[in-house]
Write a structure and sequence with these properties.
It is a single chain. With 162 residues, the protein is α/β, with parallel strands linked by helices. It has a five-stranded parallel beta sheet with strand order 1-2-3-4-5, with helices on both faces. The protein contains five helices and five strands. The two termini are 22 Å apart. 36% of the residues lie in helices and 12% in strands. β4, α4 and β5 form a beta-alpha-beta unit.
Length: 162
């Protein structure tokens, strides 16, 4: 069964003063059960707003959380605790943070601790664009595969080859 998709109410930019509107609407959608993809892509979210999203209660379970194309500006060390809160607590099964103001993926290789922290989530974490070509190099292809898996699980997209 395909997940239902919850999108940003009124398609407006979200910030610390109105993020509660989105969370209230999401919680209403989640009451019906089933797999829900929460599409907050292109909502103008900043890092502070994403921190506010972590207030989703422990019993709240979102199938896929799409935070792509926002104004999230952070370094890898600053972002990792947020990723861990969403994915380790099983609040979210799939998380997309692609196309934000994040450092280049290659910079993750500068710190073994950070690289292990991010790669530990495998293909349930999306940090790259699903349309990029596979290079044959595992250290880069893992991010493209994660993006493709997110789009497949969250929205039902399919690809000729993976």
């Amino acid at each position: 069964m395909a997940p239902s998709v919850y999108a940003n109410p009124q398609d407006r930019h979200l910030h610390s003063k109105n993020i509660s509107v989105a969370l209230d609407a999401l919680n209403k959608e989640l009451r019906f059960g089933g797999r829900v993809t929460c599409n907050l892509s292109s909502s103008g979210l900043t890092l502070d707003c994403v921190r506010g999203l972590r207030s989703l209660s422990a019993d709240t379970r979102v199938y896929a959380l799409d935070l792509s194309l926002n104004r999230i500006k952070a370094g890898w060390a600053e972002l990792l605790p947020i990723v861990e809160d969403f994915l380790s607590a099983n609040t979210v099964e799939y998380l997309d943070l692609s196309l934000n103001y994040l450092p280049a993926l290659e910079t993750l290789h500068e710190s073994d601790v950070l690289l292990r922290g991010y790669t530990a989530y495998g293909e349930i974490l999306c940090l790259d664009v699903d349309g990029n070509f596979l290079t044959g190099k595992q250290e880069y292809d893992r991010w493209v595969r994660g993006a493709r898996k997110f789009k497949r699980e969250a929205y039902g997209c399919s690809y000729d080859s993976d």
